[in-house]
Amino acid sequence: MNQSAALERTESALPPIDVSRAALYQDESWQEPFRRLREQAPVQYVPDSDFGPYWSISTYQPIVHAEALPKVFSSSWEYGGIAIPGGVEAPINGEIRMPMFIAMDPPHHTAQRRTIAPSFGPSEVAEMKAEVQARTAEVLDSLPIGEAFNWVDRVSIELTTGMLAKLFDFPWEERAKLTYWSDMGGNVELMKTPEDLARLNEALFEMGAAFAGLWQQKLANPGKDLISVMLRSDAMSHMSEQEFIGNLILLIVGGNDTTRNSMSAFAWGLSQFPDERAKLEADPSLIPNAVQELVRWQTPLAHMRRTVAEDTEFEGAQMKKGDKVVLWYISANRDESVFKDADKVIVDRPNARRHLSFGYGIHRCVGARVAELQLTTLLEEMAKRRLRANVIAEPERVATCFVHGYKEVMVELSRY
Question: In what helix (H) or strand (E) does residue 387 lie, and over which residues does it extend?
Fold first, then answer.
């Protein structure tokens, strides 16, 4: 790009702010840069970052607008997919591109999503309720009262990994591997250097080999699990090995990180706003709305990336075919024009369900109901036992601009 073109693109009320820097999320200092962007440059061109140049979209309505235009803003893996790393025209740093239905455009996306979606329908999720309750009760009843422990390990990971193992009919005694593969697959920082990419690819091939064995088992003895559902589908039964692995990464990362980090936000967020916690403890009927509010406040996936499919003018910006566009859900969920006092957890917030944490449009999270079931059940079972998670130290957070989450949240349980 020549210098005049770069100047033309970056001309705005605010010098470019690169909000893809991992440090912003590791030390939880992302709020102020995004506030400045929302106020002064809601659509801004960032010419330089560790992930290359990109357009940054940080306010609610423009993100909804972009998500409603999938023909203009492509999700295709062929252009780099749904996260900020990756070249547009050719893979970089030895990057291996994984086809998956969230990183596809219609009609391929439509066919594969239709295969998976019924497994997460209202009746299917209702059938999961009793088992989710039993599993949640078992985990909570195993926890010590008045002793410090890591909520992420003992509750968030244990519950979400158990659900994934159930959905895939994955060997229960090996379920910890699902967490490891999810952590690797969702870490965009591993896509910066050839050395890190080699580690990532090793983990993904290990996962592929494990699930290839499971695939062969389900060919001989199909069940109700997701792999059996894929096998029975015309749209997905003839997937290539890379497409199979890609869809597994999607389902594992999506099924793990959203729920896991929202569960951790339940402990951390309510500790930050004790008046709201007291309100919820006094009125358990607020639990379904509080779940939506905690998912909004946390925003477990900070962004989704799109690639411009054709030259277009968008919100006054001149975008070129091949430009990388980053939709910052984490910022949209703090947009004060939509959510008053957006930095606060407000358990009875009237419009909490308008959050974008599950996406918007054709790519809205297919497993949102399962995430909501798990989170609602956790809050209900905590309320039945009158348990409170008291956070006793600043959390240790994940250092990445994609998965917005926690490594450690130290708590002590008490009764109220």
Answer: strand 387-391
Tell me the C-alpha distance between 15 and 159, whole Å. 43
Which sign, positive or negative, has the C-alpha torsion 356, 349, 36, 400?
A: negative
User: Which pTM was predicted?
Assistant: 0.86
Which two three-digit tokens encode residue 164? 């994934």
Asked whether 74 and 105 are in contact (CB, 8 A), the reply is yes
102: left (phi over 0), alpha (psi -120 to 50) or beta: alpha
Torsion 35-37-42-47 (CA) sign: negative
Q: What is the maximal distance between C-alpha atoms in the chain?
A: 64
- Under a CB-based contact definition with an 8 Å cutoff, are residues 313 and 319 in contact? yes
**R_g of the chain, CA atoms, integer Å:** 21
- Chain CA centroid to CA 196, Å: 21
Alpha-carbon distance 99 to 101, whole Å? 7
Summarised one tens digit per residue, pLDDT across range 34-63 is 999 999 999 999 999 999 999 999 999 999
Q: Residue 5 — pLDDT band, cuts 50, 70, 90?
A: very low
3-state secondary structure of 173: helix
Mean pLDDT is lowest, of 67-71, 184-188, 216-220, 255-259, for 184-188
| Dist CA 96 CA 92 (whole Å) | 9
Q: How far is CA 356 from CA 297, 338, 360, in A?
A: 10, 11, 6
Check: CB of residue 125 under 8 Å from CB of residue 370.
Answer: yes
| DSSP SS3 for 403 | strand
User: Which is it for strands 324-328 and 303-308: parallel, antiparallel or unpaired?
Assistant: antiparallel
Question: How far is 309 from 322, CA to CA, in rounded Å?
Answer: 6
Summarised one tens digit per residue, pLDDT across range 67-87 is 999 999 998 878 888 889 876
What pLDDT is attached to residue 354?
98
Copy the structure tokens of residue 169. 């009919």
Structural domains of the chain, ranges and CATH numbers in brackets: 3-415 (1.10.630.10)
CA 325 to each of CA 45, 82, 136, 320: distance values in angstroms, whole numbers, following the listed order: 9, 10, 39, 10
Rounded to the nearest angstrom, the gap between the alpha carbon of residue 225 and the centroid of all alpha carbons in its chain is 22
* Higher-scoring residue by pLDDT: 194, 392: 392
